[in-house]
């Protein structure tokens, strides 16, 4: 354990509602790192820096990650005001990677109108490698009884710059993660906080406030990331833009994309919202993989995994371990 004074702080490179991430240099070695600073007393559930520290310590062995796809905790410090996590200094995340690979061109129509078209140039092999890397991270953390609860492209960094080698994804940010059985005494397993995950990446059970969810919420989020990477234009094209701001719009987009949930959806049977949805929404049919993951629609293994992780019933949603078995077969 170090002290804050052991580091020279530099520019802010990220952060969230309750955290700041700064570039820093360890004075004694000149090595550069990312420093995540949190004031625990300012946090609101489910954010919990003390739990994040416990989880990162559990996921690491002697300061080095036991899994190449999970962020290593290099060092940390605590004082009366804040907790600091010393982490590797990664250069880019999945959001930035996709943006850099998307090219927008002007198209001139016969009627004289100009429209802009965006093309996603992520390669199929790259998408599959990143997808498998995230699943490998989930396989590991789920084996440690940890639910990440915020799988999204901003929380997938890369440990290398490519340069002819496959980009290796690294899962970061365990600030709202859940450690079974009761999140260090903070949440009952059958009564967990549902205000988790980010935008498009929320699993449908969270939108119906089903509180006894499990690690398969991470699997659903990873499937939505696959949709993003596999799209023609670098967007989750079957989801409405309003999903960023409205859970109702997100639920509608999920139904439009994956069809109506079965009336026998076990975990939703006690949900008033689910009963109302079944009574009042028109029945929807699931879209084809041509629409959902167009760049990988001809990859039989990917299609098999995707079709079996993007399902409403968590008992039928593939685990990360099982998904990897299929992809490696």
UniProtKB/TrEMBL annotation:
SUPFAM superfamilies: Protein kinase-like (PK-like)
UniProt entry keywords in alphabetical sequence: ATP-binding, Nucleotide-binding
Highest taxon listed in the record's lineage: Eukaryota
GO MF term (any one): ATP binding
Gene Ontology terms describing biological process: filamentous growth; mitotic DNA damage checkpoint signaling
GO cellular component: cytoplasm; nucleus
Binding site for ATP: 36
Domain Protein kinase: 7-329
Gene3D superfamilies per the UniProt record, alphabetical: Phosphorylase Kinase, domain 1, Transferase(Phosphotransferase) domain 1
Pfam families: Pkinase
Nucleotide-binding listed as a keyword: yes
Family matches, as CDD domains: PKc
PANTHER family assigned to the protein according to its UniProt record, in alphabetical order: OVARIAN-SPECIFIC SERINE/THREONINE-PROTEIN KINASE LOK-RELATED (PTHR44167), SERINE_THREONINE-PROTEIN KINASE CHK2 (PTHR44167:SF24)
UniProt-recorded name of the protein: Unnamed protein product
Organism field: Ambrosiozyma monospora (Yeast)
